[in-house]
Amino acid sequence: MFGSLQDQKNHITCNEAGTARVRPTAKKPLSAGLLTGQASVRRQKGACADTVAMLGQSRVHHGPHNDRVYLFHLNPADLPGITGRILALAKDRGYSRIFARVPAPARDHFVSCGYTPKARLRGLFRGEVDGYYMANYLDTTPGDGNGIDDVLAVARAKARQGAADRRLDPGFTCAPAAPADAPELAAVYREVFETYPVPIHDPAYLAQEMQGWLRCFCIRDGNRIAAVASAAVDPDALFAEMTGFATLPEYRGRGFAGRLLRRMEAEMRRLGMKTVFAVARARSYPASITFARAGYTCAGTLAKSVNICGSLEDMNVWYRPLGSGEAASPRG
Fold it and tell me: Are residues 124 and 319 in contact, defined by beta-carbon separation less than 8 angstroms?
C-alpha cells in the first residue's frame, strides 16, 4: 500500500497546487447515508453539517460545521495533486483550516505545500510506517493552548498512581452493539453531544457504518444503554480510531469509558490491528485521564479542529501500539 510513497519521499513538489480545481465529485457524498450539508443559522442539538466526499481516490470530511477540510484517507495515487484539490475546495467553500492524516512518506510534500506537522504517531500504518496529523490554517491564527499542559500533567499523574479495575455492578453488561441498536445509540449521542463532527445522532448513519467497519460497544443497565464507544477500523492500514465515547449523565463517575476502551482494545487485537489511537478534547480531564491510564501517548494537539459539544475545540491525539505491549519500531 505504501510502496510508491516510500519511493517518492523527498521528491514530491507542489506543482501548480494552487491552481488545481475541484471536480464535481468533491461535492457529492460518499453514500446516501451520509449528510450532504445542513448548515443553518440556528444549530440544533446533535446537528452536523459535514459531508464525506471523494477527491480522486482519497476521502475527506468538509463543511461549515467545523470550518475545515479534513483528509482522513490518502490514496497514494492522488499525490502530488491532492493538496491542490484540497486547497481549491477549501477556498471555494470559504473554510479557514485544513487537516490531513498522512503516512510519513507524504509528510514532506504536505510541508512544502504549507502544512505543519502537529502530531506524530509511531507505526500508525500497519505497525511499520509513522503517521502524521498535519494542519494548514489559511486565514486564522490558532489559539495559544492555554490550560492543555495542566490537563496533561494531571492525567499523567493519575496514570502514575494507577487505578483500580472497577468491576461492573450486578445488572450491568459490557458487550458489542448491533446495527439494530442504532436508534438507541443515536439517542444517547443526542443526549450527550450538542454538536459532533459526524452525524452520530442519525440512526441510519450509525446502522450503515456498523454494517461496515465501525465496531460499537456499549454498557447496559439491564436493557438500557448507559454508555457507548466505538472503534473505526481501517483493515488495510491495520489501525483503529477509538471514538464516540458517551455516558449518560446519571451513570458518570463509574469508569465506564475506561472499561469500554479495554473491551475495544481486546477486540482490535483479535482483528489483528497494530495500533489504536484517539482524537480527544484537549481540555477534558476525564478523557485525558482515561487515555493516560490506559497507556496511550499524547502525540500532539490540533488547535481549533473539531466542533464538539457546541464549540470549536482543541483536540489532543493519543495513540498506543497493540500486541506485546512494547513500543513499535516504525520506519519514519
Answer: yes
147: left (phi over 0), alpha (psi -120 to 50) or beta: left
Annotate 56-69 with b (16+ C-beta within 10 A) or e (fewer): bebbbbbbbbbbbb
Give dist(CA 128, CA 122) in Å, integer.
Answer: 8
Select from 163, 164, 209 the least CA-distant residue to 186: 209
Residue 270 CA to residue 247 CA, distance in Å, equals 25
Domains of the chain: 3-137 (3.40.630), 148-321 (3.40.630.30)
Cis peptide leading into residue 80 (ω within 30°): yes
Cell of 55: 477527491
Quote the DSSP letter at residue 247: E
Q: How many CB atoms lie within 10 A of CB 206?
A: 28
- All three cell numbers of 234, joined, read 481501517
| 132 within 8 A of 300, measured Cβ to Cβ | no
pLDDT (tens, 9 = 90+) of the chain, 332 residues, equals 323 233 332 233 333 333 333 333 333 332 322 222 333 323 344 455 578 899 999 999 999 989 999 999 999 999 999 999 999 999 999 999 999 999 999 999 999 999 999 999 999 999 999 999 999 999 877 777 889 999 999 999 999 998 767 789 999 999 999 999 999 999 999 999 988 988 899 999 999 999 999 999 999 999 999 999 999 999 999 999 999 999 999 999 999 999 999 999 999 999 999 999 999 999 999 999 999 999 999 999 999 999 988 888 999 999 999 974 444 333 33
pTM above 0.70, yes or no: yes
Nearest to 47 by CA among 229, 186, 194: 194
Q: Are 38 and 55 in contact (CB under 8 A)?
A: no
